[in-house]
Q: What sequence folds into this?
């Protein structure tokens, strides 16, 4: 079932078509299947019991995506073992692995949706015109309930890092 979108998303000022349903706070987070850098399959259900910060980017090889992933990598180490930070793009797993090595990324798990756009379709981030993910951030609690959503209106802009991190911290605080 498709939900009406609450806003338009643009890429360099041009509207894009997002495939899939818009996710909203309070929704049960849909499962997905993506590939880790070693080509193993990863699903949302694999990390049930942990808080997940899911950072969705068009490509790690662009300035904003690079900065976004580095920002969440830097803060991931401060969030504790009950939090997983996932960065999802359609970059090939080999390219993600190479990028992580060059960038020194260790606190974020990079995952590829290139194979069948499972994440993009499930979370409404699949940009039909470019076969890329739009820029978005989701926070999912340990019971797979969505607690924070941001579809960045202009793909070339940064997300609201502070709001996403505050959403994670508020879940951790309630758990303690």
A:
């Amino acid at each position: 079932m498709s939900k009406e979108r609450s806003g338009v998303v643009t890429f360099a000022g041009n509207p894009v078509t997002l495939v899939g349903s818009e996710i909203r706070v309070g929704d049960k987070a849909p499962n997905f299947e993506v590939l880790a850098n070693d080509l193993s399959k990863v699903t949302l259900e694999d990390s049930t019991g942990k808080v997940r910060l899911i950072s969705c980017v068009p490509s790690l090889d662009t300035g904003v995506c690079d900065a976004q992933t580095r920002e969440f990598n830097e803060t991931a180490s401060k969030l504790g073992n009950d939090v997983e930070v996932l960065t999802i793009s359609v970059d090939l797993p080999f390219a993600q692995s190479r990028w992580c090595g060059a960038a020194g990324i260790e606190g974020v798990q990079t995952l590829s949706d290139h194979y069948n756009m499972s994440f993009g379709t499930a979370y409404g981030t699949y940009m039909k015109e470019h076969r890329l993910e739009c820029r978005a951030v989701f926070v999912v609690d340990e019971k797979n309930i969505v607690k924070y959503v941001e579809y960045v209106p202009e793909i070339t802009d940064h997300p609201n890092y502070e709001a996403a991190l505050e959403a994670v911290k508020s879940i951790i605080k309630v758990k303690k």
